[in-house]
Every structure is written in C-alpha cells, then in structure tokens.
Amino acid sequence: MAALANYEFTPRYRAGRQNADADGLSRITVDTDVITALATAVMATVEEAPMC
C-alpha cells in the first residue's frame, strides 16, 4: 500500500461482466507444480544476483 500512496486514485467496484480482465484472472486454475518451479527459479536467480 505504501507504494500506492504517491498516486491519486479512487477504487471503483465493477461487476464481473464489466471487469472481464480481473474476473478472468480470478478463475484461472494453475498447476501448483508449475508455480513451485517458477518460484524456485526466481529465488535462485535472486540469490545469484550481485548486491548493489
């Protein structure tokens, strides 16, 4: 939330049919093995990156 503090916006509710992007994303089923593999790969990349 702190990152959003610099922006001025007003959240508005939109029903599923009017907010198709969010509605569609909320209904996606994802294989947990795929998520685990991606997270492991990202963590390995982060751990290898030099600290600046």
Please provide a written account of the structure:
It is a single chain. By secondary structure, this protein is mainly α. It has one domain (2-48). The chain contains two helices and no strands. The protein has helices at residues 20-26, 32-48. The longest helix has 17 residues, at 32-48. The protein starts with 19 loop residues before the first helix and ends with a helix.
Estimate what percentage of residues fall within beta strands: under 5%
User: What is the average of the pLDDT values?
Assistant: 82
Question: What's the shape?
Answer: flat
Count of beta strands: 0
Distance between the termini: 25 Å
- Using only CA atoms, what is the Rg? 17 Å
Total helical elements: 2
Low-confidence stretches: none
Largest sheet: none
